[in-house]
Amino acid sequence: MREKTAIDNLADSYLAKLAENYPSFATSIGLASGAAEMDDYSPKAIERDLKLNQDTLSKLEALDPVDDVDQVTKDALSQQLILDIEFHKAGLPYRDLNNIASPAQGIRDVFDLSPTATVSDWENLASRMRKVKDSLAGYQQTLAVGFDKGDGPAKRQLNEVITQVDQINQPEGFFHEFAKEAKAETELPAELRKELVAAATDATDAYAAFGDYLKKMLPKASEQDAIGRDRYRLLSKRFLGAEIDLDETYQWGIEELARVVAEQEAVANEILPGATVAEAIAHLENDPATKLHGTDALQKWMQRLSDKAIENLGKTHFDIAQPIRKLECMIAPTKHGGIYYTGPSDDFSRPGRMWWSVPEGVETFDTWRETTTVYHEGVPGHHLQVAQATYIRETLNDWRRLASWTSGHGEGWALYAERLMDELGYLATPADRLGMLDGQRMRAARVVLDLGVHLGKPRLDGSGVWDFDYALDFMSKNVNMSPEFVRFEVTRYFGWPGQAPSYKIGQRIWEQIRDDYEARKGADFDMKKFHSTALNLGGLGLDALKEAMSRA
């Protein structure tokens, strides 16, 4: 067991402060503290966060690493702190609202991860629901700062969140159903059930008031979706943990999209000789053998495929510790769209989970299209990556294990994992490979779309600049998803700049790191060792990962 250093202690004290300040974060990593509390998103909390980041950075800069583990921690933590400080100075916390990953969703999402096994857990949840009102009120105050400065979120995002709030506010909305379905290992007291119903009403009413506020703010909301080059550069670096040439990356995205399309066309010809991609997909969509009907069938299929991948890969290509071998596949209680992963608690009492938020009206699913999604979210994708970092206690401090994360590292690894599964023979049929390429094509397309929109690039046909209708048409031509999914995704790119491209750009950087490692090792290159070495570093910014792997 490696002895903790001054840098480890500082990183862990920073983690503890984050958990204290954000009870939802404490819940997400499995800490019991704050289980009855909700996050404070007020302007005062925003300033509190800035001071914490500045103070921690100042202390970190004064410390000298004692070994390579320390050096990686210092590189990763200092980079994150600097970017978070710049994020604040750019005014971005005051316009933080979108359709997928803002406090508007996070305040509700914490209930998906909250413990529900005991009477005490449900007492905490009643308290937590009662405090949704305060959390939303503080968030509203923060958004008001942006609106008052003429720098509020875009009208498109307000309208999307208003729709989401309206779903919560139905008689069968989330909080009402959550309270009604409450159960524990022992019978809940009648008084507690009554309190849960009342607390659920409070939380629902709080969301209704928040929705009313957003409706009032619509005239003040920005008509402009694009974030602009300066802010986009900051957001891109924050999501990647790496500085990139935005214009070179845009051009690379166009070329990568063309390359994936060509590969997809070749596979389509294998499925149905002479067929276009659209014709091959139509052929597969008429194949009852690859159809799943209903979310129950979807969940069971996901679980079987995930369990099989863990069992097989654990024998051959990866060291998968026993606690990591449990992954739960879940249908999310929301119907907003999107598929996502949540990590295990620190002690693995809550396992990693793969969630599918199925939009209203979507009832059928194609296994050939979603096989690679299971590998992306599960093993060897997010679950192996996140759970492995959580599991390693001998060398990594708590911040490295539980809180060090960038989208480019995490999502880039998951896309790399998709290609790896093809390389290892797990996408044995042309149909499954077409599904993988469909996902790769989507990720390449959104590099082009995201940079095109937010940097004000000309449309690819030269007819003007990117706008929502053009982006929707472009995406519809490059993905094979339901119209509901496509619209949700495009709206996400417009409201969460820099995040969507981090997947494909992150994959590009992961592949470059592997190529560099293999070139240095030559005949001694061992793929399993490369993966173990990289994953045992935890979630780093990609510049920090590149530097650490150059010394491995």
Protein topology:
Blueprint: H1 6-21, H2 23-28, H3 43-61, H4 68-89, H5 103-113, H6 119-130, H7 132-148, H8 155-168, H9 174-180, H10 190-217, H11 229-240, H12 246-271, H13 277-285, E1 291-293, H14 295-316, E2 327-331, E3 339-342, E4 352-356, E5 364-366, H15 367-377, H16 382-391, H17 398-402, H18 407-423, H19 430-454, H20 468-478, H21 483-495, H22 501-521, H23 527-535, H24 542-550
Parallel strand pairs: 2-4
Antiparallel strand pairs: 1-5, 3-4
Give a structural overview.
The protein is mainly alpha-helical and 552 residues long. The protein is 64% helix and 4% strand. The chain contains 24 helices and 5 strands. The chain has a 3-stranded mixed sheet with strand order 2-4-3. Strands 1-5 form a two-stranded antiparallel sheet. Helix 6 (119-130) runs parallel beside helix 10 (190-217) and helix 8 runs antiparallel to helix 10. The model has no long low-confidence stretch (mean pLDDT 93).
DSSP summary: helix tally = 24
SSE string, helices as H and strands as E: HHHHHHHHHHHHHEHEEEEHHHHHHHHHH
Distance between the termini: 20 Å
Q: How much is the radius of gyration in Å?
A: 23 Å
SS-based structural class?
mainly alpha
Q: Main sheet?
A: 3 strands, mixed
Based on DSSP secondary structure assignment, what is the total number of beta strands?
Answer: 5
Mean pLDDT across residues: 93
Task: Tell me the overall shape.
Answer: globular
Low-confidence stretches: none
Helix content: 55-70%
Q: What portion of the residues fall into strands of 2 or more residues? A: under 5%
Can you list the strand order of the major beta sheet? 2-4-3
